[in-house]
Design a protein that fits this description.
The chain is built from 4 helices and 7 strands, in the order βααββββββαα. The protein is an alpha+beta fold and 146 residues long. The protein has one domain: START domain (Alpha-D-Glucose-1,6-Bisphosphate, Chain A, domain 4), CATH 3.30.530. It has a 7-stranded antiparallel β-sheet with strand order 1-7-6-5-4-3-2. A hairpin with a 4-residue loop joins strand 5 and strand 6. Helix 1 crosses helix 4. The radius of gyration is 15 Å and the shape is globular. The relative contact order is 0.24.
Length: 146
């Protein structure tokens, strides 16, 4: 099993980052995957959505479920392909510290050569881009006091 643990500081208040992270209309902005069949808001336990991406011509499709929520602090997702994804938000003055953790195993149904290409560094690089996208979009849309 592989483990990812990363964090970033976002120059926006926790409430703004939380609203962005939990808004289903923004999922494709940071997951880099097509998102369909969203059953509700992401800050509600039991909400599900389907995520579809392509890697080396192979389609990877999975259903994610919101397992736990602590509003403006904690979001726990689980994919039927295996990984748990945990986001934690902590205020840092007017900014937010966003932490992401995941334990994952590459799906067994992938051909061996695809699994070999999709090593820990590939998955980490994609999630790092996702964190950078959350940061960029959240900062770009935060209101500036007049």
């Amino acid at each position: 099993m592989n483990h990812i643990d990363m964090e970033t500081r976002i120059e926006a208040p926790v409430g703004h980052v939380w609203a962005f992270l939990c808004d289903p209309s923004h999922l494709e902005d940071w997951t880099r995957a097509k998102t369909t069949d969203v059953s509700g808001p992401l800050d509600q336990v039991g909400t599900t959505f389907v995520s579809t991406s392509r890697t080396l011509g192979f389609e990877m499709k999975g259903t994610l479920t919101v397992l736990e929520v602590e509003p403006m602090r904690f979001l726990h997702l689980r994919s039927d392909m295996g990984p748990d994804m945990v986001f934690r938000l902590e205020p840092e003055g007017d900014a937010t510290r966003l932490t992401f953790k995941s334990d994952y195993e590459m799906p067994g149904h992938l051909p061996g050569f695809v699994k070999n290409v999709m090593t820990k560094s590939f998955v980490e690089r994609n999630m790092r881009r996702g964190m950078e996208d959350i940061k960029a979009f959240a900062e770009a849309t935060v209101s500036v006091p007049a």
